[in-house]
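ARCHIVE CARD
Drawer: 12
Card no.: 0347
Subject: one protein chain, sequence and derived structure
Cross-reference: see card 0346
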Amino acid sequence: MAFSRIVAAVMEGQAGDVRRYTTDALAQGYPAEEIINKALLPAMELIGQQFKKNEVFIPEVLLTARAVKAGIYALRGQFVPAQTNKKPVRILIGTVAGDLHDIGRSLVGMFLNIKGFEVINLGIDVPPEQFVWAVRQYKPDVLGLSSLLTTTMPAMLETIEALKKAGLRDRVQVLIGGGPVTKTFAERIGADGYAYDAKSAAEWVLANAPRSRGNQN
């Protein structure tokens, strides 16, 4: 089956095969979003579970992420935002200070982008003051904070506190996520939302972000 071939190729880190099988699935009439939801995202979830159990390690995860990116790249032309006079929802994302993990945040950014959102990616190891500067500079609707280490999770609270101190907290919704992050933690630090993967992040933005940026200054 088309989806199982894609999943197997992702798990093996075969980017070329993933790209080819994804293109084949499109040619067979499978919708792009179905390919993402039933092949690419499940494969990433599976590798994530194996990583948590120490069944695979960083090199394998990196190869898997590269393979998923190849599949998403093959699908990019399939996502055409609806024509509208409203500006797209703008999302600012970054991995918090002290954390150098890039994979999950990048995949979330790509998924949000192909969903039609405007994504500004600040990268890794972003200190609170840089998030504050970027919120002031870009005026996003949503700020996405990522942490893959329990030791860097406090930086999420520090970033939210920095936004409060700068008088910007009420101007942006804060969505957090990452391996060790939970909904309970999000509520505890005063974040507006929590997402456990790229799909749930997009669903949260669709449900909670403003429909238009026309009233932004």
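Annotation on reverse: The longest helix spans residues 32-52. Confidence is low (pLDDT under 50) at residues 212-217.
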